[in-house]
Specification:
Radius of gyration: 16 Å
CATH class: Alpha Beta
Shape: globular
Number of strands: 14
CATH superfamily: tt1808, chain A
Strand order of the largest sheet: 4-7-9-10-11-12
Number of helices: 4
Structural class: alpha+beta
Strand content: 35-45%
Helix content: 10-25%
CATH topology: tt1808, chain A
């Protein structure tokens, strides 16, 4: 479960969290979440492969994007780590040389789980909207659901909700079809 470790925290406090946890600093509160389990990691990894090939590499797709796993986003005094993020290359022509991303992504994806769902929905999504992220995806691998949201004046509007084994075209990546069954994968033996 994502735990609030401290109020009035700083980036130095965040750096003290063990590497076995994902640490985030939101409105002065320090949160730490365990590393993802199988279903969470599988869905995130698979989506990165599905989108990365046509959008980041430009193979059989339009290209023009950077698709990154778990980037450390810095929005003023906030530090968040979405499962995936994407930038149109015209908005971020040159990626940072270190692990700190100061340019607001065009798209983020959070893979929710019982340990982080509340943090993703109640703390991180409002922050992403306020900072100007254009699209947010929430994936729930246990329920096999993809929620697509678009930013309208700093608030999220539902664009679509898909589930199970649907084949979808979802903004901002509607140029390709995504077979959702590929995200869920077989359960561990």
């Amino acid at each position: 479960m994502a735990a609030r470790l401290r109020e009035h925290a700083t980036y130095d406090d965040l750096l003290q969290v063990p590497d076995t946890m994902v640490a985030e600093l939101i409105e002065g509160e320090l949160f730490a979440s365990p590393r993802p389990g199988w279903a969470h990691a599988r869905a995130s990894s698979r989506l990165g492969m599905i989108l990365g090939t046509p959008f980041d590499l430009g193979d059989n797709g339009p290209g023009g994007w950077w698709i990154i796993d778990e980037p450390e986003l810095h929005f003023r005094h906030n530090v968040v780590v979405p499962d995936l993020a994407g930038w149109r290359r015209e908005h971020m022509p040159v990626p940072p040389k270190n692990h700190i991303f100061n340019v607001v992504p065009d798209w983020i994806c959070e893979v929710t789980s019982p340990s982080n769902g509340r943090l993703d929905r109640l703390k991180k999504l409002p922050l992403y909207a306020r900072e100007g992220v254009a699209y947010a995806w929430l994936i729930d691998p246990e329920q096999q659901v993809l929620e697509v949201h678009r930013n309208e004046d700093g608030h999220w509007a539902s664009d679509a909700t898909y589930g199970e084994n649907q084949v979808v075209r979802a903004n901002p990546f509607s140029e390709i079809e995504i077979d959702l069954s590929r995200l869920w994968g077989p359960p561990p033996a």
